[in-house]
Amino acid sequence: MKLLVVFFLTGFLLGCIADSSYSPPGLAKEDAVYLKADSERDHGIFQGLDEKLYINAVNGVSIGGFFNGYYESAYIEPGLTEIDVGFYQGKVKSERCVKFLAEKGKSYIVRKKREAWSINFWVELENDINTNVVNLPCGE
């Protein structure tokens, strides 16, 4: 019984470790653009209260899911990029598309704002003091 408890706790603690970044095969990190999601992790052991944002697909290619894990950061190719992001908090879910022009060597962050029953998503250049939104409408 004690072995089962130790096994369960070890798995739980390993599951709490921050996920690794997605990187497509053959893309060198020095040639890539870094993209991360603006997830909230303020509630410690009450993780169900955290507002989590995941990158589900890049340019129509699924990168995250139940079987291969959910990514909060990714290295992507430079150029016009369309990403699908998912917001999860308890039973509240929202998935949307965001499109932006990714420039080599720069870092971007996908942000969210929850207002009542709607959730808005946008992309910003990370560490930009002007917080300029860089995304474009999807599907164009």
Structure commentary:
The longest helix has 15 residues, at 2-16. The protein is mainly β and 140 residues long. The chain contains one helix and nine strands. The strands form two sheets. Strands 3-2-5-6-9 form a five-stranded antiparallel beta sheet, with no helix packed on it. A four-stranded mixed beta sheet has the order 4-1-7-8, with no helix packed on it.
Poorly predicted spans: 4-18
* Largest β sheet strand count, sense and barrel closure: 5 strands, antiparallel
Number of helices: 1
**Sheet with the most strands: spatial strand order:** 3-2-5-6-9
- Proportion of residues in extended strands: 35-45%
Number of strands: 9
SSE order: HEEEEEEEEE
Estimated structural class: mainly beta
Would you tell me the overall average pLDDT?
77
Shape: globular
What is the CA-based Rg, rounded?
16 Å
- Assign a percent range to the helix content: 10-25%
Q: What is the straight-line distance between the termini?
A: 58 Å
What's the short version?
This protein has 140 residues and is mainly beta. It is 11% helix and 42% strand.
Which helices and strands occur, and which strands form pairs?
Layout: H1 2-16, E1 33-37, E2 52-58, E3 61-62, E4 73-76, E5 79-89, E6 92-102, E7 107-115, E8 118-125, E9 135-136
Parallel strand pairs: 1-7
Antiparallel strand pairs: 1-4, 2-3, 2-5, 5-6, 6-9, 7-8
For this entry, give a set of tags.
11% helix, 5-stranded antiparallel β-sheet, mainly beta
